[in-house]
Amino acid sequence: LAARAGKRLAQREKKLAETEDEIAKLQEEADDIVDSLRAVAANEVLTTPSSTGSGQQDPKVVAEKVRQLKDALKPVGEKMDSFNSDCKLMIKTAGPEADTKELD
Question: Where would one find coiled-coil regions in this protein (predicted)?
């Protein structure tokens, strides 16, 4: 009986360590997404004014900035989609004793 309990305890400890590793990986992914968003926000496309000498915005310049912003955000969106999928999988595979209400 004690041997079986010891084996179950070891299995639970292993599962707990695996879960902690998964959470750490998710945290790293979240940090990477935040860093990417900060880099996009600091990009000169957003910080450089696009007005002409008369104060009017040149539509061609604005269109180019929008294209550049869209291109810069595309990889961030892909990272966010992957992150959300990983989080949903973690919630789905959580044990019945895990409270995941706030995460849904």
Answer: 2-43
DSSP letter assigned to residue 51? B
List 57's β-bridge partners, or say none: 51
Beta bridge partners of 51: 57
Q: How far apart are CA 92 and CA 98, in angstroms?
A: 10
pTM of the model: 0.73
Q: For 25-69, what is each residue's pLDDT tens digit? A: 999 999 999 999 998 888 777 777 655 555 677 788 888 888 988
Amino acid identity at 44:
E
Helix (H) or strand (E) holding 39: helix 2-42
